[in-house]
Amino acid sequence: MGQGNVYLPIFFLGLLAFGFAVFSVAAASFTGPKRYNRAKVDAYECGIQPAQAQLGGGRFPVKYYITAMLFIIFDIEIVFLYPWAVSFDALGLFGLIEMIIFILTVLVAYAFVWRRGGLEWD
Amino acid sequence: MKVSVEYQALAPIIILLASGVLSVLVEAFIPRTLRRPIQLMLVLASIVLAFAYVVINATAELAGDPLVNGGQVKGLRELAASGSIAIDGPGMVIQGIILLISFVAALLLAERQIDPQGDAFASRSSTLPGSEDERQFTAQGWLQTEIWPLYLFCVGGLLLFPVSNDFLTMFVALEVFSLPLYLIASMARRRRLLSQEAALKYFILGAFSSAFFLFGAALIYAATSSVNFSTVAVAMENSSQDGLIIPGIGMIAVGLLFKVGAVPFHQWVPDVYQGSPTPLTAFMSAATKVAAFGALLRVFYVAFGGMRWDWRPMMWVVAVLSMVIGSLLAVTQTDMKRMLAFSSVAHTGFILLGVISTSAAGLSSTLFYLLAYGFTSVGVFAIVGLVRDASGEATHLSQWAGLGKKSPWIATIFALFLLALAGIPLTSGFTGKFAVFTAAIDGGATPLVIVAVVASAVAAFFYARVIVLMFFTEPPVDGPSVVVPSALTTVAIGTSAAFTVLLGIAPQPVLDLVINAGLFIR
Amino acid sequence: MFHSQAQGDLGIFGNDPAAVIAVKVLGIFVIMVLMTLLTIWAERRVVGRMQMRIGPNRVGPFGLLQSLMDGIKLALKEEIIPKGAHLAVYVIAPVIAATTAFLTFAVIPLGPQVSIFGTVTPLQLTDFPVSVLYVLAIASVGIYGIVLAGWSSGSIYPLLGGLRSSAQMISYEIAMGLSFVAVFLYAQSMSTSQIVAAQEPMWYIVLLLPSFIIYTTAMVGETNRAPFDLPEAEGELVGGFHTEYSSLKFALFFLAEYVNMVTVSALATTLFLGGWRAPWPISLWDQANVGWWPMLWFFGKVFAFIFVFIWLRGTLPRLRYDQFMKFGWKVLIPVSIVWILIVSVARYLRNEGGLESRNLLFAASAVLVVVVLVSYTLDLRRKKSDEAEEQRIAIEAEQEFDPFAGGFPVPPMPGQVAQPSRRMKATISSGAPASHTPAETTEGN
What we know:
The structure holds three protein chains of three kinds. Chain A has helices at residues 8-31, 63-86, 88-115. Chain A is flat, with a radius of gyration of 25 Å. Chain A has one domain (8-115): NADH:ubiquinone/plastoquinone oxidoreductase, chain 3 (Methane Monooxygenase Hydroxylase, Chain G, domain 1, Up-down Bundle), CATH 1.20.58. By secondary structure, chain A is mainly alpha-helical. Chain B is an all-alpha fold. Chain B has one domain (7-516). Chain B is built from 20 helices and five strands. Chain B has helices at residues 7-29, 32-59, 89-110, 132-139, 147-160, 167-185, 192-224, 229-238, 242-260, 268-275, 278-303, 308-332, 336-357, 360-384, 403-406, 408-422, 428-442, 446-472, 487-505, 508-516, and strands spanning 78-80, 85-87, 387-389, 392-393, 481-482. In chain B, the strands form two sheets. Chain B has a three-stranded antiparallel β-sheet with strand order 4-3-5, with no helix packed on it. In chain B, strands 1-2 form a two-stranded antiparallel ribbon. The radius of gyration of chain B is 22 Å and the shape is globular. Chain B starts with 6 loop residues before the first helix and ends in a 6-residue tail after the last helix. By secondary structure, chain C is mainly α. Chain C has three domains: 18-355, no CATH class; 357-399; 400-444, no CATH class. Chain C is built from 16 helices and two strands. Chain C has a two-stranded antiparallel ribbon with strand order 1-2. Chains A and C meet through helix 1, helix 2 and helix 3 of A and helix 1, helix 3, helix 4, helix 5 and helix 10 of C.
């Protein structure tokens, strides 16, 4: 038996979920009361005068960028690992050795980052 | 599923990349004080070993009939790694040239006596220029040893670039050698803002040109459903999809011509050559150009060889523009490094003459020119790094006045290099130009050669101007002086000078070598 | 050849008539919403019991309708949009978060083939050869909802919360992704139904215990739940990325969080606990894995996970952010990678030598656990000596406590000794009596 369109049900589920979410967001402006107050629409602050934040907050710690870059390295490693794992039996010894070499190469980068303090959050 | 890897043929590339990985480990686990000597040993040893493997591969007995092998009698000639890498005569010659230049350039990068503060690189590239941190690290004598793993990866990528036999491998190689260059370019110890600006320009333009290359490869793939050069060449013969192929060729040409620095894709050259640490400029102007021309030759001889009537007009325009604009703009420069950068653009035009010939003679003359130009270029920038005043390198032309009276030796060698760049007989530059021009005339590009000769005459003017400035003017009172370098730079300059002279006086053995290298494997 | 191992047949998917698709889609949606309401209720009741309280018990039997009432109450609240917000992104962020949360459940197998309206169809919306990858992909898109919510609020707390949240989720996504590799190695497939089928002889929790532990840890981090709920650390960040959200938009984030909780539990059940297969004593009954019964086992397992989620929240204090990142990057990732190497070698030995590598795997798991424990104790000891060192430095610093170091006077830290007041010194040196006013005392101390 051949496969029909397996992605179609996902589309319908997505449509339903999206519709529900949009409905909720839209409904909120009708169901709730509206009482304007200048202080209410200010950015949240615990007691002190809220400073108008730049959109996007201006500058934030560079650590997040490093985390993002490290994530990309490892995510790509994972992307390579998946097809290898699924066809592992078919690839045999060649696949095993090549992947060990690949993982070791990534581990070298990992060791470097670790030693240089790229994984510290201080 | 049968996958094989030809370890013997790929040994030079594998050695360089593996030592790059090893070198990262050294950075991670060896104490700071020991890092520099270990890294230096690792770099030099791996380059020597890789060169030995290139020689072994190039002199290996070839199985099979010489006639079948394109008249080649010796040397490896095989498609490696499932056809994505082609190890053949010209490829190995280019690899050999790259390794020789990399060895000499590594000596320059390691030089520590020229600058009283250390080597040519920032004590720590993560510090802000002019900050308190920077001053502290400099005072403590920190050295940036991360350049060495980057350098090894870069050389590994350069070795792979000219022997890649499909567009994807070539793109990967392009990135592998480009990214380290962008990084090292930003690490100059002096004038760091200039250096960082240069690196950013290089990076953005380089990324842009990589995108062009990749898009071109996609178009070619769309037309021929292959990225492999041999398959593409066959498929193009029978394809009617010029609407995809011609733009594809054009875009790939943009990507490669950017790397060699041909007009109109040359804008990065002066800024990057000027801003980068001078030893890196030496390496970049020589090795990158050699590798990029190797790749250009392979792409346009193997993959697009059958389409030469379509791409030749474009190459003609690029070659003429490079020669004319490079020479003319060089005349107007007042900064030594910028002048040499424009001269490098002009030389790109000359070398393109060999590419345009699309003949065996064109190929071999281009290889010879690359060897000759590469060493002259390394030597010239090595000497630029020696002439200094209190603030660092003295690169303004006026500061070079009267240098021949203060330091006759260095000035003489510099004059020798300049004469070679100008193409005066008895220097390597003359032999190279002669070979390329002859090949171009045989290939039917006589008008181009006439332009080239005129451009050479213009170029000779500004080289001669520097020589006159050095020997026939009085030195300024507070002018710069020539620093006495350590053995590393001395060896580098000596080697470059020796090659420049030898290739001018007795070029025949090397000419035989490049002619015997044969053709690209298909 | 490639799928020689996979027992399930993917051909049964994608052939449903429209009515069945509609029933399944609606069914999944309703189940998810009900599960959310139930989970919130369960959480409040269970945590209440754990804290010696009763928890909500007023609305409906046992307070079961409490969460529904809360939802209605939220809908009737005023919607506040802060004036610094980027309106379009601000509105779209909760939609992204909620939509993606529902989508991931599409590929979870709830049971074997059953008959709906006379059509024989699997109890699963759909499945394809890369369905676990699909779950990861949709989960990654879900992070956008959180990041954009933080970014678009035009306020500092949400921004930091959103950033933290994304950094946390991508860090733990690596560990999560790595823990799947061993499962794929053994199932030789990325399709959820085939992975369930491949677990017929033995659940992967037994065979691949370290993977299971890594996954369950990572899934708590992925869903921002205690003890990894740093993005919502009230003490530091108010409410994290949804500080500026109110009314139903806030409810959508709340919903998304609980739906995600259910989804990761369902995924854990599918990948490691044999999916809808009945656990041991029940599985002796030959009707246990047929018809609609498996759905019961499946949701039983999912609720077990949800109970653990709640238990964790009732028990463990929140981690510090640096500890949390350190745990993810320096423990989970290297352990996962080493474990993948071990599993692949064991699998290779099994394939080639016909060697029964199961015992090898068990031994390796034990060794791995021991290594992790030993390195943990070593780390603890080192930390202790570090702390002792810090204390020593602090004691040294005590001698020279300068209340004016920061430009204006500060009281001494515990253990530090304040210098006597300058004015006091002046009075002493001028020969005045030692008695002084209370004001002077406070200044000195």
